[in-house]
Design a protein that fits this description.
3-stranded antiparallel beta sheet; disordered N terminus; 9 strands; 6-stranded antiparallel beta sheet; 6 helices; elongated; Translation Initiation Factor IF3; 30% helix; 2 domains; alpha+beta
């Protein structure tokens, strides 16, 4: 939002002390502008998520079967993890299955499940890692999160671009009013969202049919919005 009276310079100086009496910057002539920017970066990291489950009438047998297969997969994947990547295993979850019999609900079995997350994998290796996970027959696959290492290592790079956008707008307004742009008196970040990874869901059955799943590289968006008050000079 831009607040500037496009009047001759002598009128600006004469009227601003009265018009901006409520402003904390009065009687300093100033202009207020918003700047925004949107930056798209190529994803170079990917996070894979999968869930594994076993159903059995006996909860102990279900847990035993799940842990046997899950532990084998963990050992296999940990031996091959590239530098900087990590494997996280979730807690074991046990859910009873119910069925209505003779007007009463009875437990007919148990579903034991556990989540697996592979984080920070190089995006060019995503297909081969996905193939190994799919070979273990997960009950659910996804989401697949694409990230940028640049955004992981620094603050939102779109902030500097948003500030430059605000300055450009303010210079245009100052020039149109016959004035020059001075220093920034006030800068506020207007709720710039944290850069979010791009998420994709995949059907486990669909991936099972592919011998070497290929994932299309995605992009990560960073955006920012700022409010800046600049000093106006004659």
């Amino acid at each position: 939002m831009k607040k500037l009276l496009l009047l001759p310079a002598f009128l600006v100086f004469g009227l601003l002390p009265q018009l901006l009496l409520a402003s904390p910057w009065a009687p300093t002539p100033h202009v207020e502008v918003n700047g925004q920017a949107r930056l798209m970066l190529e994803a170079d990291l990917v996070d894979l998520h999968a869930s594994f489950s076993v159903e059995h009438r006996d909860s102990r047998l279900a847990m035993q079967e799940l842990e046997q297969n899950f532990s084998r997969l963990q050992r296999q994947l940990r031996r091959q993890l590239p530098e900087g990547a990590r494997l996280e295993a979730g807690q074991v979850s046990i859910q009873p299955r119910h069925a209505r019999r003779n007007d009463t609900w009875q437990i007919t079995g148990y579903v034991v499940s556990r989540d697996l997350r592979l984080l920070g994998l190089p995006v060019e290796q995503a297909g081969q890692w996905l193939e190994q996970v799919v070979e273990a027959r997960p009950s659910n696959l996804g989401p697949i999160n694409y990230r940028s290492q640049q955004l992981d290592e620094q603050r939102n790079p779109a902030l500097a671009l948003a500030l430059a956008d605000a300055r450009e707008k303010a210079e245009t307004l100052a020039s149109a009013s016959g004035m020059r742009l001075g220093q920034a008196l006030y800068v506020q970040e207007l709720g710039s969202p944290r850069p979010m990874p791009m998420m994709r869901m995949m059907e486990a059955d669909a991936v099972m049919s592919a011998s070497a799943p290929e994932l299309e590289p995605s992009q990560v968006e960073a955006s920012a919005q700022v409010k800046v008050i600049f000093e106006l000079l004659p």
